[in-house]
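To whoever is on call:

I kicked off a structure prediction for a single chain this morning and the downstream step that reads the tokens threw a length-mismatch warning. I double-checked the sequence; it's 180 residues and nothing unusual in it as far as I can see. Pasting both halves so you can look.
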Amino acid sequence: MDPFLTLLNSFSSSLSETELGSLKFLCRAEITKRKLESVQSGRDLFGFLLEQQLIASNKVSFLEELLKSIKREDLVSQLKQFVEEGEVNAPDDQPDVHEKPIEVICDNVGKDWKMLMRKLDVSEVKLERIVAANPYNLHEQLLQSLREWQKWKGRDAKVADLIKALRGCNMNLVADKVEN
């Protein structure tokens, strides 16, 4: 599967209707009115941009400008990370150090996930955006918020911080599982 298409699909699912409307408006000079009227999702829009060769895995400046225009810095940083790491530098056989703990947390933390994210100092705005993007999927809300925390912290994102936050929320069983 093409990693760039996967990234675009991920972007599409996190766009609100308002943001999609803004992107369509910004693309009026590049895409015909008829095509823009048929756009119902970010996937549709990205498909047209790919067709017009305005974006590609090695040509992301137009997409970056669009995302900056709608103030989605989170998506801009994901795009930059994709460009920096590329598909070549990300071997599939070496999982991220945080993937296992995140998996354990997602499988064991339930409806109190926001309390955990607040302990990790993730902003309410980011939490609400994640909830809006995944309204009926608790697991995905938690997964995306943990990834958001990871992105925000960068190299300072430590498993020890996750464990401390879990214990601070009295989620000791989950903290024990993460430690193991």
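Update from on-call: the warning came from a stale cache, not from the record. Cleared it. Sanity check on the structure: Residues 3-87 form a domain with the Death Domain, Fas fold (CATH 1.10.533.10).
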